[in-house]
Design brief:
Length: about 325
Amino acid sequence: MAKIGSSLHEAAAFLQHTVVAIPTETVYGLAGNALDPMRVAEIFKVKNRPFFDPLIVHVASYAQLSTLITDFPEPLKKLADAFWPGPLTLLLPRSGIVPDITCSGLPEAAFRMPAHPLVQELLSLLDFPLAAPSANPFGYVSPTKAEHVQAQLGALIPYILDGGPCRVGLESTIVGLIARKPTIFRLGGLSQEAIEQMIGPVDVQINQSSDPRAPGMLKSHYSPRKPMLTGNLDLLLQRYADDNPVLLVFHEYRSDFPRERQLQLSIDGSDSSAAARLFDILRQADDFPANRILAEYAPEFGLGKAINDRLRRASNFS
Ligand code: TXA
Ligand code: MG
């Protein structure tokens, strides 16, 4: 099992020669030296992730970023100024310093300045940026607590830097340009509305799993092991009420179903509370003594859009 601790110096020492799990404000990451092809290969191996699915490079500062890119197009720079450090990843043309393996040979690499104070301090102790995908086996739900990482990758890594439960709880929103038009490639912890307030209307292209610009958006992503269906709970219960389901309600518990078989996503009805709890609740539902998970969608605004995207991908229609 991995050691769980909060020593930045221990984490930094391990990162000189191997990979460790780190907290961020979005989800826990599996981090290694983004500029060392050996370390990046180790990340892919531990995660069992295909090499065509590129990683996000986490940077400490604009000074560090400037050595890794060849251009910072205006609308993306504006977003960085507004939302970094934070749950926003930008696709930018990479310099020769970023190895092919980190970005699957694409001309652009993904960059993010994370907001979690522990990872900011860790980055400031290192003289390299950190490549970090979410610290889960490829295809499973992302981890938002140190113990989620321990349960799944603990046997494969030496150290988990514990930064507490992730504040945002959804992966970063990924934005790049297509023919100069700002485009969201993954909905995430920064809402489309917040982005559009800064730079005006953006395109959203999140569903083409064959698009090499967003190779990570595969349908199987974020899947629990149990059969799961998301939709109108009245209709789903007509069909599956007798098949021992566990319900995932957005906020209001149903009065026509046993309370102890319902898991509540949002404590206060807000999108941010639901986002922070989503992956933990999905894991609880997966471990629940039930035959299947039945979930309802969140209201489709703010972080609700990203929550619904994850619920849709988690559903496996069996
Ligand atoms: O919040 C997050 O973004 C977390 C934390 C740890 O920072 N990381 C994360 O990484 O979610 P990961 O590897 O699970 O998702 C990275 C996504 C993938 O969908 C990948 O395809 C996309 O970023 N991506 C990375 N580089 C890309 C590139 N050059 N072009 C297009 N998509 C890219
Ligand atoms: Mg992931």
